[in-house]
Amino acid sequence: MPRRDARRLPVSRAVRRTAHEIVRKTLREAIVSGAIAPGTRLVLSDVAKELNVSVTPVREAMRDLATDGLIQLDAYRGAIVRTISMTEAREVFELRALLEPEAARRAADNLTDAQLEELSAIQAEMDGVDDISRGVELNRRLHHLINAAAGSQLLAQTLERLEETATAYVALTM
Q: pLDDT tens digit string along 23-71?
């Protein structure tokens, strides 16, 4: 049986990932960044071919993304990237406004010197950034660092899901 050329897959040598994890991460990033627009149909076989994997890890990744609310599964043809309504976007931002101050309060009690230095460096870079996509990425890094320092996995996961939904909406409007 011929060996699959693993060099074609974007796998970091430092972290070993399964095909399922690679597909999930690739699709999530493309959806959240807006590279795959809301309403786009994702066909299992097409995604598998493009990422050079079998349909099984694609099917598993799509199940995960559906659970996260990023796509809607179509039992026979794959999935469709969710379109976010103004009502949902408003609700997401309202929930973030309620939860993020709590995360920041908790993080303030738990931040290490290294994390504080990293936050300062991110903020300094954000002040001088002209590229919108770079600004969005820096903003995500800043929030992830604060959420992680808050010391609550559930709070961090909830805010991450809300942020993904918000980022997809922002990418759509841009």
A: 998 998 888 777 888 889 999 899 999 999 999 999 999 998 888 778 8
Angle between helices 153-173 and 132-149 (to 10 degrees): 170
pLDDT of residue 165: 77
Amino acid residing at 33: S
H-type helices in the chain, by residue range? Answer: 19-33, 44-51, 55-67, 86-110, 113-127, 132-149, 153-173
Q: Which residues on neighbouring strands pair with residue 71, listed in sequence order? A: 81
**Separation CA 137–CA 147 (nearest Å):** 15
CB environment 18-43: b (16+ within 10 A), e (fewer):
ebbbbbbebbbeebbebebebeeebe
Pairing of strands 71-74, 41-42: unpaired
Token pair belonging to 168: 């997809």
3-state secondary structure of 10: coil
* Crossing angle of helices 86-110 and 132-149, rounded to 10°: 50
Q: State the Cα–Cα distance between residues 156 and 146, nearest whole angstrom.
A: 9
